[in-house]
Amino acid sequence: MPDIGPSQADAFTGSPGETPWGSLPWMLLDIARQRPDRPMVRYWRQGGWQRLSWGQFALGVASAAAWLRGAGVMPGDRVLLVSESRPEFNIADVALMAIGAVTVPTYTTNTEADHAHILRDSGARIAIVSSPALAARVAKAAPAGLDLLIGLDAMPPEGAAARFAHWPELLAEPGDLPLLMAEAEQIPSGRLACLIYTSGTGGTPRGVMLPHRAMLANRDGVAALAKRLRLDGTVYLSFLPLSHSYEHTVGVFLLPSLGVEVVYSRGADRLSAEFQEFRPSIITAVPRLFEVLRGRMLAQLEKETPFRQRLFHRALALGLKRADGGRLSLLEQVQDAVLERLVRGKVRARFGGHLQAMVCGGARLDPDLSGFFIGFGLPLIQGYGQTEAGPVIAVNPPWDNVRQTVGYPLPGVEARLAEDGELLVRGPLVMDGYWGNPTATAAAIRTVEPGEAPWLHTGDVARIEDRRITITDRKRDFIKTLGGDMVSPAKLESLLMAEPEVAQAVVAGEGQPGVVALLVPAEGHEAGLAQAVARVNARLSNIERIRRWGMAPAAFSVENGLLTPTMKVKRRAVLERHATEIQALTK
């Protein structure tokens, strides 16, 4: 069966990086020692952009670590960390790991019930929060109260904890940085660093146990890629929440360690100005953001003259043909050169003009969506990962980008397919298991053949061709119709949401004669849903076609529990919440 071992996968970036560090705190503190004056993080505060240098970061970590120890935080204690993207998050995260505590990064958008589950499951009795509203929500959710609550900005909510502290108290504590560095150097790579609770597109979120080695393996796996892209000294524009497993690894540890300054975006509505101001070399996002960016560009295009619209679409078509390996005729080559100057160069300039990689992950990236950006020379590459794997497993290099795939496994990662097509991975990036859940751990990490090391069973169905991985579906989400046909909901939902009239879509049909769809229209496009479904059906086989569809009563959102904080639709939750509407469609 198809198999990619470490030596084969190394072909796309070289060998895994040779890191001299055994733990995350030791890596960052050692780098701070080498370049204390270099900027590390840029953030908005008090009406302007502020910078945190590496030296300031290290001193903050030492002070926070000393205070936390003095407050009784012990090795192995789980500590909830609930904050927007800001430098205090980085400092607290690393300080806790440096003294042996286990950080539990948690979304600010979580409900009280979400916080209650995580606090109860992890056993955390200590929390670091940003705003007063979050402090009150977390305190109220604590099943047995909190022993210690630390507020970055907050005043203590009444009855919140046995002790409340304000963040400036931690930074005022004298810290012994050389001693902390010496201790960090001795942290074993296998020690538990953090619990990341999966966002849970279905079922109850579980705490993924990530040791230092898992995230260091991710760092080593992309080191050669970053070197080839010359990212050292450039800017990364960050807008995913730091509690997301990808952003936690990449934005807090990986990219800073490779010399990239992290800029925390003020939000999607300010992206255009931030692209111009910071001219980033790299951004990462989920597909939804790229859908929004494409929508904005097309909306602006509608205001242009028909001639300019034709130039735009011709530039896209020729650029994509060239990027996909097609051969341009002599006339097309001349047109392509002119359109590069008149159209594509101006489009890239809107994104700052310096992008080396636009990395998309977290959900399936429709090839038509990625092709829209690639056609203009914007390097949108699809990666693949899971929280259970540090989280990065595979990525397309910008110089060898096949947009229908998720690319090659990182160096050091083994990948193979099970008999049923499920993707299996193995390597130092794999989690230790699920916190307090040996049954789920045993189901996720197990051997395939007697006597071999266990594999992480990803739950994703895939193909491996020429060492590249293509994800085709979630194993557990296939729909089996009444006729016994197997249909991929991920494929259908992706095609539907690629249509401009459709904002969100969930398909169903298990045990039914055919497939039905529940749709949320894009604003102002309710009347166009029928045409959108017809266009999608024209591209599908007979067994895949959507027989009936209906509009959802309301959009799927984080607030109503039908959308994860990273904008992924919770399929199972939607199917349960709207069972009546879906049942009516299947009749």
TrEMBL record:
- Domain of life assignment: Bacteria
Pfam families xref list:
AMP-binding, AMP-binding_C_3
**Which controlled-vocabulary keywords does the entry list?**
ATP-binding, Ligase, Nucleotide-binding
GO-annotated molecular function: ligase activity
Catalytic activity of the protein: a long-chain fatty acid + ATP + CoA = a long-chain fatty acyl-CoA + AMP + diphosphate
Domain AMP-dependent synthetase/ligase: residue ranges: 32-435
* PANTHER family, sorted: AMP-BINDING DOMAIN-CONTAINING PROTEIN-RELATED, LONG-CHAIN-FATTY-ACID--COA LIGASE
Q: This protein is called what?
A: Long-chain fatty acid--CoA ligase
Q: From which lineage does this chain's organism come?
A: Bacteria, Pseudomonadati, Pseudomonadota, Alphaproteobacteria, Acetobacterales
